[in-house]
Amino acid sequence: MTAHPLLAELALRAGARAHRTVTACSCGADTLADRADATVVRHADTVAKAHAPGTDPAALAPRLALAAEFPDVLLPPLAATPAELHGRLVTFWPYGAPVDPADPDAAPWEAAGALLGRLHRVPAPAALPPMRGPAKAAHAVARLAAVGRHPAVAAVLSAWRALPAWARAEAPMPGPGVVCHGDLHLGQLVRHPVPDGPWRLIDVDDLGVGVPAWDLARPAAWYACGLLPPEEWTRFLDAYRSGGGPAVPASGDPWPALDVPARALTVQTAARAVTKSAARGRPLDEVEQCLVDACARMGNVPPQLAADSAK
C-alpha cells in the first residue's frame, strides 16, 4: 500500500484539477488502485495516477503524446506533461466507466478487438520505446523464483525456459514492430464520456513498439486453458481481424502467430498466482491450478514458432 501522504496529496491534486481550484468541495475522492506500481485516485470527472517509482520521464512522454494524438483509440490525458509528487510522476485523465466484472456477458470483446486492430495500425513515432510486455513477464517470473519451495514453481519455470529469448526479455523483439498496448485485458477498457460513450484503451505505461500478437495473448491463453469460452474468443478475434489487425492472418489458423505470446502470458499469469498464494499461505484455487497445469504441459512441448517468425 502507498504511504498516506502520497495518497492524500494525490486526492488533493485530483480535486484541484477537477474543479480548477483549490477550494474545498464535498465530492470526496475514490481510490481506484493503490499498488506498488501505481496509485490511482478519482475525484469527480478527473483521475490522477501516480506512476511506478523510477518511471522514466523520457519514456513516458512519447506514450502520453501518442494517447493525445489518437483519442479515438486511447483515452487522452488531460495534460501533456506529468507532474511530480513525492518522487513519483503523476498524470491526469478524464474518468471513464470501466468494464463491469459482475456482468461477464456484457464484456466488450468486440470493442477490445477492434481497438487493438486500430492501435496496431497507428504509425510508430521514432521516440516510442519498446513495448514492455516481455519485461513484465520476466519480472513476474523473477518474483516467482524468489518464492523458494512450492510445488508449482518448477512447472512454471520449466515453461518459461522453453520460450524463445525475446519472449523472456533477453533479446530484442522480432520486427518489424508495431505500436502495441503491452498489457491488454478487459480492465484496460473504459467508456468515455460516461456512462455510455465509446470504449477506449487506458494505461499507457507499457505502450510501445513490439510484437502485436502479444496484445492478443492474454485472451488467447485463457481460451487455450479453457478459461475463456470459445464464442467470446471468436468475437474478440473476428473483431480484430475485421479491423485489419496485423498480428494474425486475415483468415485461417491464428495460432502460429499466437503460440509464443500466449505461452508467455500463461507463464506470467501463473507466476503471479503462485507468488500471491505463497505470500498468503493459501493453496492455489481452481483457476490458478489450471494455469499451472497448462505450464506443466507447455514445459514438455517446446514452442514451434521460431523467434524470427512472430509478426
Outline:
By secondary structure, the protein is α+β, with helices and mostly antiparallel strands. It has helices at residues 4-19, 57-69, 109-119, 133-145, 153-161, 213-224, 230-242, 255-280, 286-300, and strands at residues 30-35, 38-43, 46-51, 83-85, 88-94, 97-98, 178-180, 189-191, 199-201, 208-210. It has a 5-stranded antiparallel sheet, covered by helices on one side. A 3-stranded antiparallel sheet has the order 6-8-9, covered by helices on one side. It has a two-stranded antiparallel ribbon with strand order 7-10.
- What is the tally of beta strands? 10
Radius of gyration: 20 Å
- Measured by DSSP, the beta-strand proportion falls in 5-15%
Structural class, please?
alpha+beta
How is the biggest beta sheet arranged? 5 strands, antiparallel
Overview of this protein structure:
This protein is α+β, with helices and mostly antiparallel strands and 311 residues long. The chain contains 9 helices and 10 strands. It has helices spanning 4-19, 57-69, 109-119, 133-145, 153-161, 213-224, 230-242, 255-280, 286-300, and strands at residues 30-35, 38-43, 46-51, 83-85, 88-94, 97-98, 178-180, 189-191, 199-201, 208-210. Helix 3 (109-119) runs parallel beside helix 7, helix 5 packs antiparallel against helix 8 and helix 6 (213-224) packs antiparallel against helix 7 (230-242). Residues 305-311 have low confidence and may be disordered.
What are its keywords?
single chain; 311 residues; alpha+beta; five-stranded antiparallel β-sheet; three-stranded antiparallel β-sheet; globular; disordered C terminus
